[in-house]
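Write out this protein's structure.
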Amino acid sequence: MSFAILMMPNCVPHYSLSGATIPVEAKTISVAFFTNNTTLGKPSISQKFTEKLRDVVSSQTNLALMKQNGDLQFEGNISDYNVAPVAIQSTDQAALNRLTITVSVKYTNKFDATKNFEQSFTRFTDYQASKAISSVEDDLLTEINRQLTEDIFNKAFNNW
């Protein structure tokens, strides 16, 4: 029995300040550039999303951020960007529109393949239909990126 206890410390996960479970062997993390594979989304959405995900993993873990080949890796693309009416008022006019963004993510953990995943994450935000998307898009993207990166982080490190 004591032999098993001596072996356990090598398997103990590391916990970050955010409460995330990170393999103790992991020292680096990489977040590849997420390309924009949509026809409607403006080109800057890729850069904004990628930067937000890099900021989240940098601020919530003690891992060194690398451009590629980290011990833990995120890669993927923005696969959908859609604006649609969600609240119709009289005379068939929308009161609210919804911006929905889907990101396809591949996460690789070099130390534990059972933690690897490929999954799409979708989030949305509603806005007044009387406003042009171009006038509110930056604020909407900020909120949606916050939600998406939180979901992705939680999936990778908090087993959600």
